[in-house]
Write a structure and sequence with these properties.
Elements lengths: L1 E2 L10 E6 L5 H11 L6 E8 L5 H8 L4 E3 L8 H14 L4 E4 L8 H6 L4 E5 L14 H9 L4 E8 L9 E8 L6 H24 L17
Parallel strand pairs: 2-3, 2-5, 3-4, 5-6
Antiparallel strand pairs: 1-8, 6-7, 7-8
Helix pairs in contact: 1-6, 5-6
């Protein structure tokens, strides 16, 4: 396990907004970790999905968490969509955005407003096998094609480039000789479920610190 130390001033409590597009397995792992006390001083305040059928929205409903379907298709312009996202985040006093299988690129306006307050998990050991088009089974197909013997998962800060932000936590997964993209994906996903809640816990406890712009502290209002 590799942990990358940086500066990050946290508020007394993390108010987490989760962005998810699919089944929400990483989101569920985070919910479970908060419920069992593994992540202190943290609450998921809203789940936002661009997909009305996302499993993540059902998980949110089951756990009494506000779930919202917000898609660019619902708005007349990129600007109006981004404005609604920002208003939603601020109304829920969000101070950390967690991407959990969110299949849309985050608008630079959101990134600027929450600089160093957006994190993601990627199914490979960044900086390898990241960037445009590297998502889902494509990542594992590329790993196997490269004949790499080790892959893994990475929790990182989100910036304006795909899979480019600072690395917070990584864990390796061996690539077996008989692996298929599907079998490798299943083992990497288990590690994602382990290190994503762990990274949030370390942030909440101040053990992982990020250096950078501090967005508005909505907890103080």
């Amino acid at each position: 396990m590799r942990k990358f130390e940086q500066k990050f001033r946290v508020s007394a409590k993390l108010n987490i907004a989760v962005f998810a597009s699919g089944r929400g397995s990483n989101f569920r792992a985070i919910v479970d970790a908060i419920k069992n006390g593994s992540i202190p001083h943290a609450k998921i305040v809203v789940v936002i999905s661009n997909n009305s059928d996302a499993g993540a929205l059902q998980i949110a409903k089951e756990n009494g968490i506000t779930g919202l379907h917000l898609s660019r298709k619902q708005f007349s312009s990129d600007e109006s969509f981004t404005t609604e996202l920002l208003q939603t985040l601020r109304s829920h006093r969000t101070n950390l955005i967690v991407l959990a299988g969110y299949m849309k690129k985050i608008d630079p306006t959101i990134i600027r407003a929450f600089r160093k307050r957006i994190i993601n998990v990627h199914p490979a050991l960044l900086p390898s096998f990241g960037g445009t088009g590297m998502y889902g089974l494509r990542v594992h197909e590329a790993v196997i094609a490269s004949k790499a013997t080790v892959t893994g998962a990475t929790v990182h800060v989100v910036d304006e480039e795909y899979d480019h932000g600072q690395i917070l936590l990584q864990k390796e997964v061996p690539v077996e000789p008989d692996d298929t993209p599907e079998s490798l994906a299943a083992r990497v996903l288990k590690v994602e479920h382990e290190i994503y809640p762990q990274a949030i816990r370390l942030i909440a406890e101040g053990q992982i610190t990020l250096d950078g712009h501090q967005p508005e502290d909505f907890n103080s209002r």
